[in-house]
Amino acid sequence: MNHSKCEQQFSLLNKELLELHGQLKKKLKTINFLQNEKVKQVQCSLNETDIKNIQYQVQLEQLNIKYQEENQRLQIAVELQQLEKEKMDKKQIEMENKISYLQMKQVETKEQHHLEMQFVNK
Do 72 and 16 meet the contact criterion of CB atoms below 8 Å apart? Predict the structure, then answer.
């Protein structure tokens, strides 16, 4: 995978993360609004324990959304790390190929020098 493709993929993943973040924020606002409305509607008939239970449910849903968002961030981070690893692996292979090429050239040069010396000595 070339560098440009990695950058494109990184850009797309970053854009996707921002979109997901925006969607989660909207969902959280909607949930909070609906739950607040629900609490207002039934608050008169509920006792204190019921109200606390609803508050805990709201907190749990908020935490769930927060953890979903963090999980998505982590998944994207893992994908980015994989892309970086692939890029580094490719660079390492390129360097190994260059080293092999230079070693081969060095051997050719030594052989050529040896042949030239034999020719000069004759």
Answer: no
C-alpha–C-alpha distance, residues 54 and 42, integer Å: 11
**pTM confidence score:** 0.42
Instruction: Please choose, from the candidates 18, 17, 54, the residue with its C-alpha nearest in 3D space to the C-alpha of residue 38.
Output: 54
Q: For residue 99, what pLDDT band results from cuts at 50, 70 and 90?
A: very high
CB atoms within 10 A of CB 69: 17
Residue range 76-97, pLDDT digits in tens: 999 999 999 999 999 999 999 9
**Residue 58, CA distances (Å) to 50, 51, 93 in order:** 12, 11, 53
Q: Tell the residue number behind the tokens 């560098």, with chain if given.
A: 3
Q: Cβ neighbours of residue 61 under 8 Å, at least 6 residues apart?
A: 31, 35
pLDDT at 58 over 80: yes
